[in-house]
Structures are given as C-alpha cells and as structure tokens.
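Session log. Operator J.P. requested a structure for one protein chain; no other inputs attached. Running the standard single-chain path with token output.
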Amino acid sequence: IVVITIESLKGESINILAANWGHKWGVGQAKEDNGIVVLLAKNDRNIAIQAGYGIEYLLTDALSKRIIQKIILPEFRRGDYSAGLDKGTYAVFEVLKGTYKNNQPTSGKSSGGIP
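Structure written below.
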C-alpha cells in the first residue's frame, strides 16, 4: 500500500493517475498484481483508492468508496488529514485480512468529495 499526497491533479483523473503511478512504480507484487494506491489531491479536495487487479476481488471499488466516505472523510472534515489517511489505510488492511466490520451500506447520499 502506497499513500501519495499531492497538491493538485492539474486536470488529470485521480483514479487514472493513481492506477498509472501504482503500475509505473511497481506497487505490490508483480505476479499477484496486488498493489494498492491511496492518492490524495489536497487542493482539489479529491481522494481515491486504487487496487491492482489481483486484489480487486477483496477491495472492490464500492468498498473503497465506503472506506473513503465513512472512515477517511469524517477525519478530513475535522481537519485531521493524517488521522483520515491512517484510519483509511488501517481499514484497507482489515479488508485484506477479512476482519473489516464497517460493512453497512452507504446511504446513497454522496458528499461530493473532500469537504
């Protein structure tokens, strides 16, 4: 798992940028394609979690979105980016271990990004 913080996306798609950097930098094990990139673009108020194809069956896009909305963003709203990233990364480890408990469905309301 690699956590990257940048100031701005400079017009790039956060998901494509995170996936490209993960691939280019060789995040995870090449044969298993199990790398995970958490990318925060602070000034753009945007965050993404991108998982390699070999781990997507555990860390789905929907589950990544849930971790962002329910775990990371509440800490960001309190102004504590470090806590948000720490708790979010810990939740990803829980998902990979099969111990993640915050499985309630999302409300359907989107916060629209980082507050």
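Operator note: The longest strand covers residues 36-41.
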